[in-house]
Specification:
Layout (H helix, E strand, L loop, with lengths): L4 E4 L3 H12 L4 E4 L3 H11 L5 E3 L3 H6 L6 E4 L5 H10 L8 E4 L5 H12 L4 E8 L1 H7 L2 E4 L3 H14 L18 H29 L5 H11 L7 H11 L9 H4 L9 H12 L4 H14 L1 H7 L12 H37 L5 H7 L10 H11 L10 H24 L4 H14 L5 H12 L3 E2 L6 E4 L7 E3 L2
Helix pairs in contact: 1-6, 8-12, 8-13, 8-15, 9-10, 12-13, 13-19, 15-18, 15-19, 16-17
Bound molecules: nicotinamide 8-bromo-adenine dinucleotide phosphate (NBP).
Nicotinamide 8-bromo-adenine dinucleotide phosphate (NBP) binds next to helix 1, helix 4 and helix 6.
Length: about 475
């Protein structure tokens, strides 16, 4: 047995990850249900490092040093269970199965518990960065036991992306499913970021009257400032691209129906269960969903809306600057919501997640990588118990300075009939959190009226009910 690590599941992610391990000097055992993929990997990339190809599960397990470390990179869901069922009986106490797929965190909790009872470690590891990241350095979010991280962490850290300060984009997130949970929220934040960028594009196109090439330039400029990020960078690339077949801007020939694989939806479903408002992510998921409802869109097409001309060039430039402010402020809100969700789950499941460390490992490798994440890391380093990023003095100051522009952009969007659910939801969340009083008091009154659900008072302890159907006297109920 000479391999430090094994990878089973050699489609694009698994083979790139195996190559990444090999390129970093590790001997890698490789295995796939269909042996042809294993052969192809060795033929095409065998020269990149030390691989031990295995045809059967038994051969694969025999090639691994103890404690064995098996990375599973198969399609999430039933295939993952099938692979676990195949390998677990061949393993010994202390061995590790690492699921690098996009598993739902509830499945990871179930699998971790089942394998723990058999003396095996199960590590749900979120891996972000797509195929390119898997090969050249992903952001890795491993969960599982502390003990498993001791044996696994150095290997994973060696292949992870490096943040600008040189630290690896991999850290032990917390027990059982903490890693897959955090990866899910990463994807939710990614949805929100993409939606906000799309809204900024729509405003620059429709209200400022900019052509896609000009908008690409605007994004390139923004990418040199506080919005500096992978997503802004690729947005400029996509907008600058011309369709070869028609000579038209690429963005104008693509069908405007956004698809989704489901991690955004999981984030929102889970947030509802935890009772955490993640309106930015929810609006992003719904916006993709609206775009795909072609029947509804066809039925509503042509309904009345405002008739507004695009702005004059002099005004357009000032407007574009305000859009940058609105985009930034909305982004801070959606990250604040995402972190709030991680913090709530960490409490609910007893994961004890280091919130600053999560920002640290997203600085490189993953889709939402950005200079901005270093600010989040610093905010939690300065105040580990920070209840919301919006309360960090740095972010609070920036939002305070951006808020006039933010409000004006949302108002202009409404006036021009441009849908900006992300910008608007972010602003509404900000205004709700900072309000002295919320109309929730009225909601409580209504609930007490129709359902005797009781309410608390601002001036006395206890719960109360008003006898709405009687003399409207008040009784204390608890
Ligand atoms: P796929 O998700 O397309 O899965 C293909 C692999 O699963 C093949 O190796 C296939 O083996 C194996 N497999 C299946 Br399907 N059913 C199996 C079973 N019952 N038993 C054993 N093996 C089975 O591969 P991928 O796109 O490389 O993604 C791998 C994982 O990484 C997924 O969970 C994905 O969500 C996650 N992920 C993907 C990306 C990305 O950018 N693609 C990014 C981050 C995470 P076969 O060759 O015998 O059919």
């Amino acid at each position: 047995a000479t391999a430090q690590i094994g990878v089973t599941g050699l489609a694009v992610m698994g083979s790139n990850l195996a190559r990444n391990f090999a390129r970093h000097g590790h001997t890698v055992a490789v295995h796939n249900r269909t042996a042809a993929r294993t052969t192809a990997l060795i033929e095409e990339h065998g020269h990149e490092g030390d691989f031990i190809p295995a045809t059967t599960a038994e051969e694969f397990v025999a090639a691994l040093e103890k404690p064995r470390r098996i990375v599973v990179m198969v399609k999430a869901g039933a295939p993952t269970d099938a692979v676990i069922d195949e390998f677990a009986p061949l393993l010994e106490e202390g061995d590790m199965i690492i699921d690098g797929g996009n598993a739902h965190f509830a499945d990871t909790r179930r699998r971790e518990q089942a394998l723990r009872e058999r003396g095996l470690h199960f590590v749900g590891a979120g891996i972000s960065g797509g195929e390119e990241g898997a090969l050249n350095g992903p952001s890795i979010m491993p969960g599982g036991s502390e003990e498993s991280y001791k044996a696994l962490g150095p290997l994973l850290e060696s292949i992870a992306a490096k943040a600008p300060d040189g630290s690896p984009c991999c850290a032990h997130i917390g027990p059982d499913a903490a890693g897959h949970f955090v990866k899910m929220v990463h994807n939710g934040i990614e949805y929100a970021d993409m939606q906000l960028i799309a809204e900024a594009y729509d405003l620059l196109r429709t209200v400022a009257g900019y052509a896609p090439g000009r908008i690409a330039e605007t994004f390139r400029t923004w990418n040199t400032g506080r919005l500096d990020s992978y997503l802004i960078e690729i947005t400029a690339e996509v907008l600058a691209h011309t369709d070869a077949a028609t000579g038209r801007p690429f963005v104008d020939v693509v069908a405007d129906e956004a698809e989704q694989k489901g991690t955004g939806r999981w984030t929102v479903q889970t947030a509802l269960d935890l009772g955490v408002p993640v309106s930015g992510i929810a609006e992003a998921v719904f916006a993709r969903s609206v775009s795909g409802h072609t029947g509804l869109r066809r039925a509503a097409h042509g309904l009345p809306g405002p008739r507004r001309e695009a702005l004059a060039p002099a005004e357009a430039e000032a407007f574009a600057a305000r859009v940058e402010e609105a985009l930034y402020a909305s982004k801070v809100v959606s990250y604040a919501q995402g972190w709030n969700m991680i913090s709530s789950a960490s409490g609910a499941y007893g994961w004890d997640i280091d919130l600053g460390a999560v920002a640290g490992i997203w600085r490189g490798g993953c889709i939402i990588r950005a200079a901005f994440l270093d600010r989040i890391r610093s905010a939690f380093a300065a105040e580990p118990g920070l209840p919301t990023l919006l309360a960090d003095p740095g972010f609070a100051g920036e939002i305070g300075r951006a808020q006039d522009a933010w409000r004006s952009v949302v108002a202009t969007a409404v006036g021009h009939g441009v849908p900006t659910p992300g910008f608007s939801a972010a602003l509404a969340y900000y205004d709700a959190l900072r309000a002295d009083r919320l109309p929730a008091a009225l909601t409580q009154g209504q609930r007490d009226y129709f359902g005797a659900h009781t309410y608390r008072r601002t001036d006395r302890e206890g719960s109360f009910h008003t006898l709405w159907g009687g003399d409207r006297g008040e009784e204390r109920t608890g």
